[in-house]
Amino acid sequence: MILFPRATRPGPMNPFLLGILLMIATCAVWGLAFVAPIALPDASAIEVTLGRTMAYGAISLMLFDLRRAIRLPRGVLWRALVYALTGNVLYYFLLVLGMQWAGASMGVLVIGMAPVTVTLAGRLQQGFGALKPIAVPLALFCGGLMLANTAKTDFSGASDDLAPLGVAAIFLALVMWTWYAVVNARFLQETRLVTPQEWSSVIGIVSLAAALVALPVAWATGLARLPGEIGGGELAMLALWSLLLGGGSTWLGTVLFNMASKVLDLTILGQMIIFEAVFGMIYVFVAVGEVPTAQEFAGIAVALFSVWLSIRRLYQPAPRMAP
Prior knowledge:
323 residues; mainly alpha; 73% helix; globular; disordered N terminus; disordered C terminus
């Protein structure tokens, strides 16, 4: 039985298989984002977001020539700013804020719908008829998510009277990130101005500029504490998680995602994001010392099977000619 289709383009590795592996690696580092609110329960959403963003920007500055970034066309730099806000700064602020108000499990649950929203957005660009090949897999995918999610409880214990606003914040983050994933993939497939690695650093540098503008405002308004107001142990943890999120989840994750975006169709790219929820659930369960239920395992298994079925339907091997 052939699990994945054979390569249709020349090269040392099947580009499609490479894209699949890149997305799995991407989701493995993205999943760390769901643990930060648990590891930093006393840090505000803006503190976690700015810490991550500044670490991401600092790493980007070390790896990319600032003068080359400045010489890029103004339209590209504006695009980088918009992508930095929608795919990084504002997105993660809303996600952390929502998880603090509605619970870590709610963040995994809602952001877990990103595979569906990105897939639909990508296919609808080709017209409603393009949904036909993936209608059954997508229905299975939604069923698997529902099966897993109905078994969920708020294992973080973070829910309070602000939970409805928290859910709204997470859904807004989902909408923003869906838009970012679609337009970013299209840009990378069309541009020759920057490589996927360079684009990650450009967005990181722009994100750092936005964070440096926002930091004094956050201090002045009390949304973030001054370093001297944070205990030594908590400050060390905040610095550690800023490096983990900025260097791993953000810079490395963005590079891997950009590379996958160059070789995968948006339909498959979107569905592969299911692994972010899978890794996120694993990390969170380990962090809080819980074990997933049989229903959650079954739901994730159905969702993963639907991704495989969709790949099989969209990427069938070319039929062999009769001798």
